[in-house]
Amino acid sequence: MSLVLVGMLLPATAARADNPIVQTIYTADPAPLVYNGRVYLYTGHDEDGSTYFTMKEWRVWSSADMVNWTDHGSPLSLTTFSWAKSDAWAGQAVYRDGRFYWYVPTTNRATGRMAIGVAVSDSPTGPFRDALGHPLVENGEFDPTVFIDDNGQAYLYWGNPHLWYVKLNADMISYSGSPAQIPLTTAGFGTRSGDPNRPTLFEEGPWVYKRNGLYYNVFAAKCCSEFIGYSTSPSPTGPWTYRGTVMPTQGSSFTNHPGVIDFQGGSYFFYHNGALPGGGGFTRSVAVEKFTYNPDGTIPTMNMTTAGAPQIGSLDPYVRQEAETIAWGSGVETEPAGEGGMNVGYIENGDSIKVKGVAFGAGASSFSARVASATSGGTIELRRDAVNGALMGTCAVRGTGGWQTWTTVTCTVTGATGTHDLYFRYTGGSGYLFNVNWWQFQHA
Length: 444
Ligand code: FUB
Fold this sequence. Notes:
This protein is mainly β. It has helices spanning 2-9, 186-189, and strands at residues 26-35, 38-46, 57-63, 69-71, 76-77, 84-86, 92-96, 99-108, 114-121, 129-130, 137-138, 145-148, 154-158, 164-168, 175-181, 202-211, 214-221, 227-233, 241-247, 259-263, 266-273, 285-291, 321-322, 325-326, 328-330, 333-336, 342-345, 352-361, 364-373, 378-384, 390-397, 402-412, 418-427, 435-443.
């Protein structure tokens, strides 16, 4: 299992990093969405040990501070689409008029071709349902991105090896006219040498958006390995002008995939690489960098880092926090919780979770956690600033009779003042110890 590898192989220095964003599973094809003060991150899921793009479901994560990410599980999978056979590849979710529309490519069982489906939900975290019961559009190509212009006109773009678009209707689940190709000229998308079938750099994974009146198309370029390039245009359908490299080929995955947002006054570039232990071209991980546009609107070239984006603000430990809100997890997994949401599970002796930038303020007197254990439990150690840092408290967890039989435990806390990284270090005997659904500190 990837998480076991993470726990066993991760060097101590890497534990201080925030990239990749998710350590519990392999993730790919990031699609961020800003909604109501949070970033919702929609991803694919590379299966452990995969030797192809073996992908069966999509996942959702969210964060208010860009470093502590909450796992919302998988509200969309191949089984959501009765017509889908395989290949839960790169999609994007957008918000319109109170609903969330998630456009995803997958193989149509009836035709054997890649098609674009659309799922809909009233919540950014789902559950999502198939909006149509059949593909929205199908021509054997993939990687949809959706952009809604200021005048309300929405566009669906997709493609590999071509670049297609169609105008979506206001209902977001039908379209007007026929799909058309955006001409892949070397002026628009750069020059590729050595492949007469693909004269331009455009490969796949378009991400279209608008900023200060300029339309951007950031895309996976060249193959293989890919880098991230981009083009700009005065209109949503061109003419496009190639502008250069956003991120060079790096990171031990032969694909890469862009997602760009502005959030709380900063700009963020999401991508994927093979940075987790066991990672590679088919076992990828999503990561993020903060960047600043150049004054003329061009995008600076960025490198992949292990540091990731800086934290925005801090995390409040005096409100209920989900156990699956994680800056860095070592050895743990997540799963759907019987009480709703997700819980952290499969905890073994020595596993840990870092929660970054926790604002204890004047001080905490106690800590509570919602726990369950089908075995004899173990201990939650509350450590300050490092996995072996100062011990602020020790909470004993006993057997509850089941992995989803929940109880709340409370223990006293000392030395929790100011703002610190909080490490949960789990200890106990052999095998799985207990699950954690949520936690909360109490003021002194
Ligand atoms: O994840 C499967 C495919 O690999 C995506 O659809 C492409 O963008 C590439 O990342």
